[in-house]
Design a protein that fits this description.
- By secondary structure, the protein is mainly α.
- It has a domain of 78 residues: DNA polymerase, domain 1, CATH 1.10.150.
- The mean pLDDT is 87.
- Helix 1 packs antiparallel against helix 2, helix 2 packs across helix 4 and helix 3 runs antiparallel to helix 4.
- It contains 4 helices and no strands.
- Helices cover 53% and strands 0% of the residues.
């Protein structure tokens, strides 16, 4: 008989998110950014990567894709969730990330 294969990485992520009662929208965005992270690094398994690769990916989002700061934070949260809860790898503190600049807000002035 054939032995059942272990679940794929993204299926493990989905299962772990559902066990922790995350929303479906959060699940979709986390899976999206984890998949994008893997594709950005030419389909390398996240176990083979670490803080340097996460830093490179987040900087790529800020510089090349021009994403907002909140989008970059969601991508970071997704990757931290992957490493902590799915792969059970404790990463060092990730610093020196190229952050997206938030645009200056102009005050709204009421006129006649």
């Amino acid at each position: 008989m054939l032995e059942p294969q272990p679940p794929q990485l993204l299926d493990q992520v989905r299962q772990s998110l559902r066990l922790r009662h995350f929303s479906l929208k959060t699940e979709k965005s986390y899976v999206h950014y984890i998949r994008d992270f893997i594709l950005f690094h030419n389909k390398r398994h996240p176990k083979e990567m670490g803080a340097d690769e996460i830093r490179a990916y987040l900087s790529h989002l800020a510089i090349k894709r021009n994403v907002t700061a909140s989008t970059q934070t969601i991508a970071l949260s997704a990757l931290l969730f992957l490493y902590r809860h799915v792969l059970q790898i404790e990463l060092p503190y990730i610093d020196e990330i190229e952050r997206t600049r938030q645009p200056a807000r102009l005050p709204v002035v009421l006129t006649r």
